[in-house]
Design a protein that fits this description.
Layout lengths: L4 H6 L3 E5 L13 E6 L26 H7 L6 E7 L8 H13 L22 E6 L4 H16 L10
Antiparallel strand pairs: 1-4, 2-3, 2-4
Length: 162
């Protein structure tokens, strides 16, 4: 798999909506995986402070040194996530991506995963794409992270754990 928009499209991902436009997007309310894509590939500009929400009062900001250390040169994919159906089966991609978006806009929402996204200067222009899965989303996400790590020797920029 190529870790580009084209590679994700070839693997069945759809959407490719800017974070800034995600609120009005037709995101399916089903389990799946999602990725955040940054185009073009190049040196990022980091913000000193995260725009992310203070969930449980915790500042999601990290140091410039940490951001530099986590950066993965050459990859358009900066984050891979999952969305389960939840206990009722109604959470899915729509709910999880809305939480991610709301966290990035400063709301104290429980979406700490991917928080480094919100220290990228162009976070609102990043593309969000998704893929519905018949298999448990956590298994698909883990497989994607393993493939990414095999190619780049590390996790995507904003994935801080497997």
């Amino acid at each position: 798999m190529e870790w580009t928009r084209e590679g994700l499209e070839g693997d069945g991902f759809s959407g490719f909506v800017r974070f800034g436009d995600l609120l009005g997007a037709e995101v399916p309310a089903v389990p799946g995986v999602y990725a955040v894509v940054r185009q073009p590939v190049g040196e990022p500009e980091f913000l000193l402070s995260s725009s992310g929400g203070r969930f449980k009062g915790e500042d999601p900001s990290v140091s410039r040194e940490r951001l530099d250390a986590e950066w993965v040169p050459g990859s358009e994919v900066v984050y891979i996530g999952k969305a389960s159906g939840g206990a009722t089966g109604r959470r899915g991609l729509r709910k999880r991506l809305d939480e991610f978006r709301r966290f990035g806009h400063g709301e104290p929402v429980g979406h700490k995963g991917g928080r480094l996204i919100w220290q990228l200067e162009e976070s609102d222009t990043l593309l969000v794409c998704w893929k519905e899965t018949a298999v448990e989303p956590a298994l698909v996400e883990s497989a994607m992270l393993r493939k990414f790590t095999t190619e780049f020797g590390r996790l995507p920029f904003a994935n801080l754990r497997n």
